[in-house]
TrEMBL record:
InterPro entries assigned to the protein according to its UniProt record, in alphabetical order: Glutathione-S-Trfase_C_sf, Glutathione_S-Trfase_N, GST_UstS-like_C, Thioredoxin-like_sf
Name of the featured protein: GST N-terminal domain-containing protein
Pfam family, one: GST_C_7
Species name: Galerina marginata (strain CBS 339.88)
Domain of life from the UniProt record: Eukaryota
Signal peptide from the UniProt entry: none
Residue intervals of the GST N-terminal domain: 8-99
Length: 249
């Protein structure tokens, strides 16, 4: 039976763009599990989730449920699962005969890596979120702008670092990825992945946030040229090694 995969569309040719949903998409493709995508615009996520019974992933500041994508529906178990981490854990449990993203019982270490990786991206947000808004379809773009400007307390255009501050902040992003590079170096140069020649959830997490830069800024952008060249081209090599799992179905 075919899993239904809920993702957020865009105005881009391939539609898919979200790093969070790409994590689940990579997992489905890597495991070879049949699925089809249903696209849900930003303002429709909460009403669709409530209608279908998709569980919330977090809580808002006021304590009310917060609904996000990705989510899946597995007709073989009649189960809805949301949040990329919970989705991959579900797939590992329900489809044990597929390749594992937690090899050698490393689930705890993989999740710890993912948690440690998050702060390494802090300097990127103000550069990329305003540009991301421009890649969305009109209804999602309006929703994204309205909600994010409320969070920032300023317009998205005002959020983007400029001048010397932009140079300093972009260098901080490079430094953050440098920390991740140091972790990868511990594999002894035995392969492109954190575990050497073995692909794992950690690599999926890193690549999902890496291709976000390529997708949002564009392959010919200076931002992607920078990132893809940093640390001996490690991030471009990692992306290339997972390219066959980028398929949008």
């Amino acid at each position: 039976m075919t899993i239904i995969f809920y993702d957020i569309p865009s105005a881009l040719p391939r539609n898919a763009w979200s790093p969070n949903t790409f994590k689940a998409r990579y997992a489905l493709n890597f495991k070879g599990i049949p699925y089809k995508t249903e696209w849900v615009e930003y303002p429709d996520i909460e009403p669709v989730a409530k209608k279908l019974g998709i569980p919330p992933t977090t809580k808002k500041l006021d304590g009310s449920p917060h609904y996000t994508l990705p989510a899946i529906y597995d007709p073989s178990t009649k189960t809805y699962v949301s949040d990329s981490r919970l989705i991959v854990e579900y797939l590992e449990k329900e489809y044990p005969d597929t390749p594992s993203l937690f090899p050698h019982n490393t689930v705890g270490l993989q999740l710890a890596f993912s948690h440690a990786f998050g702060p390494c991206l802090d300097a990127l947000w103000e550069f990329i979120l305003p540009v991301q808004c421009l890649k969305l379809n009109p209804r999602s773009a309006e929703y994204f702008r309205r909600t994010r400007e409320a969070d920032f307390g300023k317009t998205l255009e005002e959020v983007i670092p400029k001048g010397d501050q932009a140079v300093i902040q972009w260098a901080k992003y490079k430094d953050g990825m440098g920390k991740v590079d140091a972790w990868y170096t511990q594999n002894g140069g035995k392969g492109p992945f954190l575990m050497g020649e073995t692909l794992s959830w950690a690599d999926v997490v890193v690549v999902s946030w890496t291709i976000w830069v390529r997708i949002i800024f564009g392959e010919d952008s200076q931002q992607w040229k920078d990132l893809s060249s940093w640390h001996g081209g490690r991030w471009n090599t990692l992306v290339e090694n997972l390219e066959k799992y980028e398929t949008v179905l």
